[in-house]
Specification:
By secondary structure, the chain is mainly α. It folds into 2 domains: 203 residues, Cation efflux protein transmembrane domain (Alpha-lytic protease prodomain-like, Up-down Bundle), CATH 1.20.1510; 75 residues, Alpha-Beta Plaits (2-Layer Sandwich). The chain has 8 helices and 3 strands, in the order αααααααββαβ. A 3-stranded mixed sheet has the order 1-2-3, covered by helices on one side. Helix 8 links the parallel strand 2 and strand 3. Helix 1 packs antiparallel against helix 2, helix 2 runs parallel beside helix 6 and helix 4 runs antiparallel to helix 5. 39% of the residues are buried.
């Protein structure tokens, strides 16, 4: 995936962030009020899950702004990976919220505390489901269009909140038959939040730790190399370095032994320029001879 940003993409990311903050803050007030009135721990947990979406969106906007700072002496590859750090913080926030409400749910079951739901709880939960799924879809679309990992992470945060609200809604309708339902629902919601947090963390960690170039990317590079008209260039040893705001690709090719340095440099420059133009990736190519003398002496 190409993570290069432009001004249009930045506006889309900022729009998603501010929209998320506004709607999630309103939903938090509605669900928290409904939870306090009905005494539902699950609904209050769902409210705090929603508020954590607002917090994560604030962190997202700050991270996106910082990630667009140009390269400097201390950060020669730019600040793009700060967006990945933001995603890790969002994941950690989700895990913390999950742990807290799982413990609260266990305590409620242990103390045999029951909950009586009402119409207010139903209305608040249905509104939350519709609004949160709408935000999730918007985040997924914007994340795919801009290539932003943290926006997609925000989308999963919205989706987990929508799913937790669905579970709470089911619990509201069956709560009158089981005194323990609210405590159990709180634990289930916590597990959903935890799953979302783990997914956000692993998606970001994969990029930070390093990725294998996709087969599709390698095939496109092979096609670009083949246009140079030299047989047996045999591109190999591919490595991709993802800095979010841009990507760098390194690989090796073979060129005829009798070719001059100037000729080889011209060919490699053409390939690197084509990769940058067509794929938006900065490439660095190492040249190897097509045949080697295994018996040559080591040159110091």
């Amino acid at each position: 995936m190409n993570y290069r940003f432009n001004s249009g993409n930045t506006r889309l990311v900022n729009f998603e962030g501010w929209l998320s903050i506004l709607i999630n803050t309103l939903l938090f007030v509605l669900k928290y009020w409904a939870g306090v009135v009905t005494g539902s721990l699950a609904l209050i947990a769902d409210a705090w899950h929603t508020l954590s979406d607002s917090i994560s969106s604030i962190v997202l906007l700050l991270g996106i702004k910082y990630s667009q700072k140009p390269a400097d002496k201390d950060h020669p590859f730019g600040h793009g990976r700060s967006e990945l750090v933001v995603s890790l913080l969002i994941g950690a926030l989700l895990a913390f919220v999950a742990f807290y409400f799982a413990m609260e749910g266990v305590a409620k079951i242990r103390d045999r505390v029951s909950t009586s739901y009402g119409t207010l709880a139903i209305v608040a939960t249905v509104v939350s489901i519709v609004a949160k799924e709408g935000l999730a879809q918007a985040a997924f679309i914007i994340g795919k269009r801009t290539g932003s990992i943290s926006v997609t992470a925000d989308g999963w945060h919205h989706r987990s909140d929508a799913l937790s609200s669905v579970i709470v809604l089911v619990g509201i309708f069956v709560g009158k038959y089981f005194w323990w339902i609210d405590g159990v629902l709180s634990i289930i919601v916590a597990l959903l939040i935890l799953y979302s947090g783990i997914k956000v963390i692993t998606d970001s960690a994969v990029v930070i730790l390093g990725e294998v170039p996709s087969d599709d990317l390698v095939q496109k590079v092979m096609e670009i190399v083949s246009r140079q008209g030299y047989d047996r260039m045999e591109p190999h040893h591919f490595h991709i370095h993802n800095y979010v705001m841009h990507q760098e690709l390194t690989f090796h090719v073979r060129l005829p032994n009798q070719m001059t340095i100037e000729q080889a440099h011209r060919i490699i420059s053409l390939i690197e320029d084509a990769i940058h133009l067509e794929l938006g990736i900065d490439a660095t190519i190492h040249i190897e001879p097509q045949t080697t003398d295994k018996h040559c002496k080591h040159i110091d």
